[in-house]
């Protein structure tokens, strides 16, 4: 019996950090999807220069997909359609005890990324790709750290 390796999709992109005065600053980031974690997407922010640590946010793939057409999410992660002078975008608002950040993400980048994830795990079929035993093992291992 042949086994297949889990598929991971990673897309490097540039997001724009939106300041309170609506000035923007380009930020290097990656969008990541792992078939072994079929309900989640990950945004990894990469530091400029040497020595900085990447910062990763994980949230629901469905939250991201819904945010392409209407406001989605409450609390720490919110996503909604956003128009800019640079074209159609998606707003990604992240909130933590350390502060808040608003990012502008090109809509076409997110649309293509989500389309690729649906090619690996179709929308609504996530439960067929979830290895509950492996997920539980990962959670317990993280708890012990």
Automatic annotation (TrEMBL):
GO annotation, cellular component aspect: cell septum
* Subcellular localization, as worded in the UniProt entry: Cell septum
Provide a GO biological process annotation.
Answer: sporulation resulting in formation of a cellular spore
Determine the domain of life of the protein's source.
Answer: Bacteria
State one Pfam family annotation: SsgA
What UniProt keywords are attached to this protein's entry?
Cell cycle, Cell division, Septation, Sporulation
| UniProt key word Cell division | yes
- Family recorded in the similarity comment: Belongs to the SsgA family.
Protein name as it appears in the record: Sporulation protein SsgA
Which organism does this record belong to? Answer: Phytomonospora endophytica
């Amino acid at each position: 019996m042949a086994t297949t390796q889990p598929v991971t999709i990673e897309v490097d992109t540039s997001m724009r950090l939106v300041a309170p005065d609506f000035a923007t600053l380009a930020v290097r980031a990656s969008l990541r999807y792992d078939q072994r974690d079929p309900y989640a997407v990950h945004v990894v922010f990469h530091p400029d220069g040497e020595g900085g640590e990447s910062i990763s946010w994980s949230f629901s793939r469905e939250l991201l997909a819904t945010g392409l057409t209407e406001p989605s999410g409450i609390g720490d992660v919110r996503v909604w359609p956003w128009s800019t002078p640079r074209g159609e975008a998606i707003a990604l608002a992240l909130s933590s005890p350390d502060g808040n950040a608003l990012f502008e993400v090109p809509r076409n980048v997110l649309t293509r990324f989500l389309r690729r994830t649906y090619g690996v795990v179709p929308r609504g079929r996530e439960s067929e790709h979830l290895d509950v035993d492996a997920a539980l093992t990962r959670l317990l291992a993280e708890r012990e750290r």
